[in-house]
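Field log, afternoon session.

UNIT: design team B
ACTIVITY: writing a sequence onto a fixed backbone
BACKBONE:
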């Protein structure tokens, strides 16, 4: 998780200490036109995002974006979307 937090700090100039900080990334995604899907249940922590230009980050490839926590999912999805926003969409292994 510390690695993800460091990458978010570098890419977004944002210090993430809790979900309130992570939610700023969800708001960034929304501003960029991404629709964010968050599903939480016992043993299920899914985060994915869809954009009209790119499709979904995971689901369109048959992947289930299940993370250790919703916080981890938000950080990962935001970093992937930021990469796509900067470099365009190239299909690589998501994680």
């Amino acid at each position: 998780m510390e690695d993800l937090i460091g990458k978010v700090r570098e890419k977004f100039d944002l210090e993430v200490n809790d979900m309130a900080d992570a939610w700023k990334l969800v708001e960034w995604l929304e501003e960029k036109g991404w629709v964010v899907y968050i599903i939480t249940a016992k043993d299920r922590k899914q985060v994915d995002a869809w954009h009209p230009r790119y499709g979904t980050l995971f689901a369109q490839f048959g992947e289930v974006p299940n993370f250790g926590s919703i916080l981890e999912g938000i950080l990962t999805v935001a970093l992937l979307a930021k990469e796509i926003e900067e470099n365009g969409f190239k299909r690589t292994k998501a994680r």
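LOG NOTE: The first strand starts at residue 35 and ends at 41.
NEXT ACTIVITY: expression trials, pending approval
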